[in-house]
Amino acid sequence: MPRIILHIDLDAFYASAEKARNPELIGKPVVIGADPGGGKGRGVVAACSYEARKFGIRSGMPISRAYKLCPDAVYLRPDFAYYNHLSSEIMDLFRKFASRLEQASVDEAYLDVSDRVSSYNNVESYVKSIKEALKESFSLTCSVGAAVNKSIAKIASDIKKPGGITIIRPEDSKEFLASLPVGKISGVGAKTEEVLEEMGIKTIGELANADGKELVKVFGKNGVWLWGIANAIERVQVEEILERKSINHEFTFQKDTDDENLIRKTIDDLIEKVHNRLVDDNLICKTIGIKIRYENFATFIREKSAADYTDSKNTISSIAYSLFNEFKNNKKVRLLGVRLSNLKSMEDKQQSLSAWQE
Questions:
Q1: Alpha-carbon gap, residue 184 to 18, rounded angstroms
Q2: Per DSSP, which regions of 45-114 are E strands?
Q3: Cα separations (Å) of 97 from 129, 165, 195, 282?
Q4: Do 7 and 113 meet the contact criterion of CB atoms below 8 Å apart?
């Protein structure tokens, strides 16, 4: 049975994340980056929505240029704490669908689903279930590539953006790659592409037929890697990062509420759940976070670090409530969440204490 590797790429993640917490932005061109300053601002575009891209706006573009192309766009400063928090929650969702998950960036992941899907005939329906779960839980979309290895899956995920699914069966791998420019290979930058072109190699098919010894002579061990990708025989494993980055629990009310007693009881329940997981896994944490979503879907996240690593429920509760009190207003609450991060094992702390005592 050939491997089945997915590469999932969240569509326009920063801009989509802003739309998820503020639905009023849906359908509008959204630009994340520096202050445009009425067209005189300095800095660049960090990310933008697909609506903004229709005006020619791209990541890395001077923000002043973006403003001239679309002065009516919504310009927002990046909220990296929110994006990272959301990314962590999304990766936890993806883990439920994979034997191994490798997070490649804040908005990308590889999933090995070889023992979850019986054949390539069933890949599309399985991917759709992942996409539906992502949409239902986070109001986000993604593009997915499926193939026998990581390199082909990543290339495939870019074919039908946004929101598409591209499945490359093992027997079609070399044909799929053959006509593509070598720059489509992840890790092949402008300099490598230039050297390959000097060797008469412009497409991945030409790279596959190149003299392997010559590639090694020019690129060293990377020459073997390039040749392996071009010939669809790359078999790099999806490497699961076993260290847990966070523990979180959320609760969505059936009906938006401003009942303070109900809200506080819910927070207490969430604290109990994250604390139990912390203790069960023999972990300690340093950072405590609160997530709150209001009736208009506006979502806010606050985090604060304790003075030292702890597994104290009282400490977690104290910090969580101090963060929650920052949100007090007259709006009804739709969702609450509590998150513990900056984790390490209790054994690490005990070893540190032993070393200090010695």
A1: 29
A2: 45-48, 74-76, 100-105, 108-112
A3: 9, 16, 40, 25
A4: no
> Tell me: the pLDDT tens digits for 261-318?
999 999 999 999 999 988 888 889 999 999 998 888 788 888 988 888 899 999 999 9
* Closest among 111, 101, 109, 107 to 86, alpha carbons compared: 107
C-alpha dihedral over 302, 308, 312, 316, to 10 degrees? -10
Q: What backbone phi and psi angles, to 5 degrees, belong to 179?
A: -90, -5
Integer CA distances (angstroms), 338 to 198, 265, 273, 332, 335, in order: 55, 13, 9, 18, 11
Helices 123-138 and 80-95: crossing angle, nearest 10°?
140
The beta strand positions in 157-314, using DSSP E, are 165-167, 246-257, 283-294, 299-310
Q: pTM of the predicted model, to two decimals?
A: 0.71
pLDDT at 30 over 50: yes
Mean pLDDT over residues 193-212, rounded?
Answer: 94
**How far apart (Å, rounded) are the C-alpha atoms in residues 94 and 100?**
10
Cβ neighbours of 281 (radius 10 Å): 12
Q: What single-letter amino acid sits at 95? A: R
Domains of the chain: 1-168 (3.30.70.270), 173-230 (1.10.150.20), 246-350 (3.30.1490.100)
Distance, CA of 239 to CA of 150 (rounded, Å): 11
Catalytic residue among 24, 51, 89, 108: 108
List all residues 6 or more positions away from 201 whose beta carbon is below 8 Å from its beta carbon: 182, 207, 210
Dihedral, CA of residue 44, residue 46, residue 52 and residue 58, to nearest 10: 70
Respond yes or no: is residue 206 known to be catalytic: no
Tokens, residue 94 = 């993806």
Q: Rounded to 10 degrees, what is the CA torsion of 327, 329, 331, 333?
A: 40
Residue 354's pLDDT is what?
Answer: 40
Structure tokens at 24: 């009023």
